[in-house]
DNA sequence: CGATCTTGCAGAAACGTAACTGTCAACGCG
DNA sequence: CGCGTTGACAGTTACGTTTCTGCAAGATCG
């Protein structure tokens, strides 16, 4: 008894052995009582729990992680375009997605760590992760490669290209979404549909653009598009202007990125084009501002909340070794929220009461 | 796939003792060589480093955290309104702030963990934090109290009210910002300024509203305001409509929340009010869409990037015990971005009678 | 030339927890 | 009455680091 004396470390927080001493039991009993593990009478369990509460005992997360090999942390990696750690343009999408992902992780007892793909390696290796969500991984992302080499589960938002070794992925059917959207515009009377796209090579931009080109070829329309670096908001306004200034000006435009809607509206005003009478408009956005613009703009929603939730569920299933019935390759349907900007005959009166945005 | 098993005969990844064995040195030497700690000749350092690389050795973050007591993780706590883990309305602000915070943390070797204030306690105690950023802590936030009891540094975005024990805080001078903004509107010709505010009791809403009331009393104007639950985007549109439907309709409005600008623009159109001729408009927003609306809307920016950076710098200073010269209570200036919506002389209007009270 | 100092490294003690392996009494059973 | 069984714990080891202490061998010095 005198041998196992609690050292003079009264300074720090109460440890498990302080609780054991105060409760008059062994460390094992405390651990079992608090974790509901061993076979103990309820009286002992209650007693230990009460003493632990009284001492304000909190188990050390580091020690638990070291012992069990599970940290309860999952990484959220964001691809980067500029020198900033996050994507700027897709941020409404990312924000919603991250929000849903955090929510879903939390519900299962995990926390999310934000880790830009370009971050220094020492930061990555300094945090114990149980797995990672990767948003739109590039072809030979060194971070993903390294994580896979460590044997960590990886789930990506966006289907992986090339040899990216992911455990599972979730994505929209971008091609189908674009084709459907272009058909919608054509049905509304568009004769020549233009595209506002990006110069980067991420999957979303690439698939959407090639779907547009395919569609053009199918219906025999000459492609009319402008590409700009999507991370630069000013470049988007300039590109919108350029698109409407072309001699072969389109009578309908689809913008791939969130701010394209307002930029195109502004450009249309500058050229005296009425929307939707002279120009039909659709853009991909998760923002609710397009419900209240003049006119309201039809948007394509990628359902980031569903994606964020699905990605996290798949990842945690993989971490916990659960043989879930969820498919490891999930395609989330998109939603076209049709508003006045893509309908030739607008039924809206100017005095209609505000409507709640559909979706969700 | 990659089953390059070093001769350590250990099942998992290579540990420090595998490196030591492979390099023919002791564990101490490996640790010192990799961390640049002890006194070793460069030859040994290089050799150890090379062997570690060859084995793909990554030190265990959990073990390091357990030993050193530092995890390199800082929490980012977000107050919650609804059942979702994040604030919805202030999300543009939050997104920018979180982005800057992540960036700043990363630059100093730390990573950010997103932890909603309402999360279950076991998640909080399951992650080893070195400190926490708290956004707009409420009066007796149990999470903050618990973290403070553990002796963790806490820095808040928004000055703490009551007895919230924070190490430091960063905030805007909301009162000054609102007063300045109202003066700006009055100088532009506003006779009766309305306010679109929230029903929640967070510091931002409270301070801004009381500043508005103070200003009204000072200049002798009857307050004209509508309050709505800020987390509900639909309620915002309704409240904007109500505000302009009042018999004592204001000729200028300040909206406290991000979507108020587009909602007010839409409401003004419904009532046939021209902006800025019949109605001056300002809203608090970090969004760039207001540069491209019709007309462009004057916005108040709270400078979330500066706040996020400042908060993280203060927190890491406190964690590392650096006696920095930074003040522990920082006030970040706001910026009023003046656009057409708050200026009476508009180049586009040709024959507008000044202030015709009712539209149509 | 012995005493002291430096250099270069090895041994071992923590860090706080979870889990495996005893131990000891009470108990049922043939 | 002997014997396996079970309940209720205690002892101890291992997780993978960092770091404090120790200890030879060579360098320096009075």
- Percent of residues in helices of chain A comes to 25-40%
Distance between the termini of chain A: 63 Å
Assign the CATH class of the largest domain in chain A.
Answer: Alpha Beta
Q: What coarse outline of chain A follows from CA principal-axis ratios?
A: elongated
CA radius of gyration of chain A is 27 Å
Going across the biggest sheet of chain A, name each strand in turn: 2-1-3-4-5-11
How would you sum up the major sheet of chain A? 6 strands, parallel
The appropriate CATH architecture of the largest domain in chain A is 3-Layer(aba) Sandwich
Number of strands of chain A: 12
Major interchain interface with per-chain residue totals: A-B, 65 and 67 residues
Q: Give me the CATH fold name of the largest domain in chain A.
A: Rossmann fold
């Amino acid at each position: 008894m005198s041998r196992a004396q609690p050292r003079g470390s009264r300074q720090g927080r109460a440890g498990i052995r302080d609780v054991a001493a105060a409760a008059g039991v062994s460390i094992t009993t405390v651990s079992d009582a608090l974790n509901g593990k061993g076979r103990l009478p309820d009286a002992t369990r209650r007693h230990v729990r009460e003493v632990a509460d009284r001492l304000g005992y909190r188990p050390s997360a580091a020690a638990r992680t070291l012992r069990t090999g599970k940290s309860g942390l999952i990484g959220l990696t964001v691809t980067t375009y500029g020198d900033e750690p996050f994507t700027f343009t897709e941020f409404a999408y990312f924000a919603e997605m991250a929000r849903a992902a955090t929510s879903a992780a939390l519900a299962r007892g995990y926390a999310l760590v934000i880790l830009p793909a370009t971050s220094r390696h020492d930061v990555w290796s300094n945090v114990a992760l149980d797995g990672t969500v990767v948003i739109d991984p590039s072809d030979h992302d060194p971070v993903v490669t390294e994580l896979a080499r460590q044997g960590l589960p990886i789930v990506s938002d966006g289907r992986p290209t090339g040899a990216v070794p992911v455990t599972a992925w979730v994505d929209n059917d971008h091609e189908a979404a674009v084709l459907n959207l272009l058909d919608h515009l054509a049905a509304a009377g568009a004769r020549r549909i233009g595209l506002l796209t990006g110069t980067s090579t991420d999957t979303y931009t690439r698939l959407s653009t090639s779907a547009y080109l395919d569609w053009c070829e199918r219906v025999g329309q000459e492609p009319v598009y402008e590409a700009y670096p999507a991370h630069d908001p000013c470049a988007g306004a300039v590109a919108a202007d350029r698109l409407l200034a072309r001699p072969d000006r389109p009578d309908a435009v689809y913008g791939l990125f969130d701010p394209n809607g307002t930029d195109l509206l502004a450009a249309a005003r500058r050229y005296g084009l009425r929307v939707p009478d002279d120009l039909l408009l659709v853009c991909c956005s998760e923002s609710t501002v397009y419900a209240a613009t003049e006119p309201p703009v039809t948007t394509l929603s990628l359902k980031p909340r569903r994606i964020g939730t699905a990605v996290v569920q798949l990842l945690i299933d993989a971490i916990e070794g659960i043989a879930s019935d969820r498919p490891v390759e999930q395609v989330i349907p998109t939603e076209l929220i049709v508003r006045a900007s893509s309908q030739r005959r607008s039924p809206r009166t100017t005095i209609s009461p505000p409507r709640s945005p559909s979706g969700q």
